[in-house]
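Hey team,

Filing this mostly as a record. A colleague (T.K.) asked me to run one chain through the structure pipeline before their review meeting, and I want the input and output archived in the tracker in case anyone asks later how it was produced. No errors, nothing strange. Just documentation.

Input sequence:
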Amino acid sequence: MKKRSAKRKEIVVTGLVPPKGFFEFMRYLARKYRVTFLAPEMSYLKIGAYRETLKEMGVNFIEDAADGRRFEEYVKKGGSRIEAVVLMPQEYSSINKMAKVVRTMLPNAKFVLFAEDLPFGARDTRAPHGPYVAFLDAFRAKSLVDCSFADALIINGNINAKNLKRELESTTVLSYGEFKELASKKSVGEIAEPRKKNGLTSIIIPCHNKLEFTRKCIGNVRQYTDGPYELITVDNGSTDGTREYLSKLEGTTVIRNEKNEGFAKAVNMGIRRSRGDYVAVLNNDVLVTPAWLGGLRKCVDSCRSIGLAGPKTNNTFGYQRIGGAAYSDAGSLSKWAQAFNMMFWGEYAEVFWLTGFCILIKREVIKDVGLFDERFKTGTYEDYDYCVRARRKGYRIFCAGDVYVHHHGSATFDKGGYLKLNMQNKGLFEKKWGKRMYEYVVHGSNCTICR
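Output structure:
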């Protein structure tokens, strides 16, 4: 019997024990899997019924281990057969650390959240749309847990699982009853497969001269883009060899303009030719980094109401800008960005606007909001304008704080031309939305909700 048990796949469970449903859930898992419970530093878990009851079920009970460091030690000792890690959302402090460990050390393991009723901080039934919305707000916005971590969310309580399914498109949401029914036929790993298949992303890059920037930009896109994508370039009347370079690219849709039609119009031309479920707009003076697209996709898919997402960078305005980036060339940029991703993994912030050097937009947002306003001509303020329009339609805008993209900044403008254009488009923005909106967008606090 021991030999047969050792061959079973393992499920690791950690977090504070919910008041109801925990033992039933653990007993069910122990019938099919080798189960290990990593207990937090809570004295009442070290004594009495919890420890003894779990041991009677055959569960491996490890004390003072519910944190990223101890879990990492446990995995190193022999976690090759771990199929899934189950977290109880009431234990907020360790979940972010655990998530990083799971994704880096166990890339093939599934991440499951097991929620009993409403977690602490989410019991406000006066929320506009009822308690399940308060539950989501606690998960995604109040320094607790973000459901986008999870491959599956199992609900054992009063939360309306059907509503959560509609809200969390990229996460499998099951009531406890549904989970038990499926688990009798499938493994936890199979149940936790995302319900939403990876769709195509259309990457649109407008270009106007600056061939070397364009060459490096497209090189990084091809090297570091994860997931299916199509590449669309729009040449705005380049005269420095850019047109010839683009014409030789394989697997690329090339749109040519005889003159510089402006950034907004070029993007719109690309959108009209695009086929993807998502549209990524890139300046030709950016360098994307490993897993950049997957990170933005994960952010924008973490909640149905999120419509746009953008990364952190070295050269922009507002919340997206960070200082002190420690890299000197393309090689060190890649390594630095990967370390940045691990350090800030899963840290998202809701913002009022994103700058247009790199924006990911859901297709349904474009269908609802429309194309970019071409009155902003060559560039600047068309990104702010689009964000205002998207927010007025009810879409939320997020910065993926774990994604880093290098931005040279205004590569196609000379300094005097940029300032002149910026003032013209500022006037247009104020005329369209009012000076008060301009003051709020440009000088106000951009970050509204941080996790």
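Quick notes for T.K.: The CA atoms of residues 207 and 235 lie 5 Å apart. The chain has 19 helices and 18 strands.
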